[in-house]
Structure formats: structure tokens, C-alpha cells
Amino acid sequence: MDFQFSEEQQMIEDHAREFAQRVIAPGAAHRDETSTFDRQLLSQLAENGFLGMLVPEAYGGSAMGYTNYVLVNRQLATACASTAVITGVCNLTASAIDEFGSEELKTEILPEICSAKGQHAAAFCLSEPHCGSDAAALKATARREGDEYILNGTKQWITNGAMSGWYLVMARTAEGASGISAFMVPKGTPGLVIGKKEDKMGQRGSDTVQVILENCRVPSRFRVGDEGIGFRMAMTALDGGRIGIGALSLGVGTAALNEALVYLNEREAFGKPLSRLQALQNMVADMATELEAAWLLTLRAALMKDAGKSVTKEASMAKVFASEACAKAVDLSLQIHGGYGYVKEYPIERLYRDARITRIYEGTSEIQRVVIAREVLNR
Ligand SMILES: Cc1cc2nc3c(=O)[nH]c(=O)nc-3n(C[C@H](O)[C@H](O)[C@H](O)COP(=O)(O)OP(=O)(O)OC[C@H]3O[C@@H](n4cnc5c(N)ncnc54)[C@H](O)[C@@H]3O)c2cc1C
User: Is pLDDT above 80 for 1?
Assistant: First the structure.
């Protein structure tokens, strides 16, 4: 048992922090305000190896593994949650292809995702308008015709949907959860229609769109793994993804704590800095303690994943605890800012909005608790 990072891990985190603060942080407010993302940033993320952190070098990845992934993603999110979620979904998609795809598919597609070829990201298309938590109820279909599949259906809430080169689409080849298969659909395929962009509360620099499949034909070699493994593949990928959202939540929570610390020393009340008021010190203590506990849960899940262990329970624990610690941190930090926390002049207003979705996407807090309880009850 050792709580020390290796020299290499420390270097990776330091590099990610420096990159995030120098390159990403300055544009975060603008991305939020304009609901846009500078795609040049995607290339820079790729150049740093941040889009293929879970992919072997043989397929263009940086093979950093989950522990380094959480170190990096926390730093990216401290600077800009939108950038961190864009990065997270690229890694989520790439990790699924790496684990379940054929050699041919991995060789063809992974280098493009890891390098953000054409300044494109990757998208993970599971949710539909009528189902998110109950993903096994999805209705999109994939009908085989000769050496092709014809995809039909609508995917909802697709992160990176407007700027991806590859879409990982879960669609039904038969009834039931074991009738769900997975397909890679390249941008520009006839019948792949990018629908309306959502006008979101937070993480506005990351696009979220509907993806509509209208008689969209893909060659059968773009199927990921065998027919029927799509649901298992999605759930396995989400185990890893949830660790990433834990790290993202920690980044936003840490940024909120940092903003509180600055303000506490800047602002005075009753003739002394706010930092001298015990009621506010208690808030700082709560934020710092809960973020630290969340970090340990997230790191443990990442370490276990790197060791090849099953992390279904641990990933859900990390995600639910970190996203809720983040929610509390942004709330307390806003409270410390008083009225100034409620206006756009201070970054905490954006952090408060950015935090909210972490309790919803990649499985709501309620679903994480369902997963944890199932694992604990069945052990
Ligand atoms: C900004 C954003 C980005 C997203 N990105 C993606 C993406 O890239 N790809 C993708 O596939 N999806 C994505 N999603 C979808 C996201 O994962 C779903 O919104 C989420 O899983 C919840 O599904 P839902 O919205 O259909 O809510 P529902 O499943 O309808 O849930 C509604 C409420 O019921 C609760 N509930 C449901 N079932 C249970 C249960 N069994 N026990 C207790 N409570 C329950 C939920 O917790 C929630 O409070 C994104 C969503 C958003 C908003």
C-alpha cells in the first residue's frame, strides 16, 4: 500500500496541469458563453496523447492507463469541464473499440480517433429519446442485408455528435439485451443525420445533439465484436467511463474550492477577511474533505481497472460520490461568494452550472446506487 505517485505519474499530472491552465483555461468562459468549441484544441489534445489514453501505442494511443487518465482528466476539468467531457467521450469510445473490436477495425479506426483526424472527435451513441437509464430498451435497429447492415433509429443526447469522425452506435439485431449489437459509423455516411443541438445549462462548450439514422448502410466489418455483445460492451465501457466522470467531477469541484479560497482572502466582512469566519472555514473543511475522499475512491477504481479487475461497483461508487462531492463544493463555493457568486462576473457561476450534469450522464446517481446495491447484496 503506497499513497505516493510514481515519478512518471507526477510528470504526467504536472504536464496536464500546465497544458490545461495555459491552453484550455483561458477560453473556458468564451466556450461557455458562445456554446462553441475551437477544434484546434482537439488537435492539441491529441498531440498530447489525451484522446487515446486507454489505447495501446500500436493503434496510435498513448497507453497511459486509467490511473494516468484520471490524473489528466481531473486537470482538464479544473480548467474546463466541456473540454474534459469531449476528451472523456473520445477515450470511452476508443476503449470500447480496443476491448471489443476486431484487429482490422482497431487498425483502421483507433489511429483516427487518437489523432483527432480532420479535427474530429468520437461519439458514443447509446441513449434514445425514450430511454437513457433503461438503455436495454433501445429501439434503433440494424438489419443485415448481404455484407451490410442497415441502421434506423434516433440517438439522443450525443456528446461530440456534431464534430465526430466516428460514431459508435448501439442498435438492435434481435430482441432483448442480448440482441443489441454495436457498429462504427463514419461521418458522412448517407443516412447519418446530425439533428438539433441542445441549448444546455452547463458544459456548453461540448456539443450535445440528436443523431438520426435513416436507412444508414454500414459494411459488416464495421460491426464491433459479434452480434449481440453491444449491451455488454456498452456497460463495460461505461464502467471505465464512470471513473473518468469521477475525475471530471473532481476537477470541477477542485476549481470551485480554488475559487472559494481566492475569494475568502479577497473579501472582507465585519473588518476582517472572510477566511477568518468560522462558518466559512467549516465549508472549506467540508469541501476539501469530501473532494479528497472522492479522489481516493476514484483512484482506487482506476488502479483496480489498470490491474484488470472488475470495477462495476467501485466505478459507480467513485462516480456517485465524486459527482455529489462536486455538487456540494460548487454550492458551498457559490455561497461563500455571496451575491457575487450568482452573477457571471465570477467563474463559480459557470462551475455551478457545469457541475449539474455529472449526476446525470453516464448513469444517474439513482442508477449508480442501483448498481452498487446490486453488487453489495449479491456478494
Ligand atoms: C449533456 C448530456 C450529455 C449526454 N451524453 C451522452 C452520450 O454521449 N451518449 C449517450 O448515449 N447518452 C448521453 N447522455 C444521456 C444520459 O446518459 C442520460 O440522460 C441518462 O442516462 C439518464 O437517462 P434519461 O435522461 O433518459 O432519464 P431517465 O432514464 O428517464 O430517468 C429519469 C429519472 O428516473 C430515475 N430512474 C430511472 N430508472 C431508475 C431506477 N431503476 N431506479 C431509480 N431511479 C431511476 C433517473 O435517475 C432519473 O432521475 C447525455 C445526457 C446529457 C444531458
Answer: no
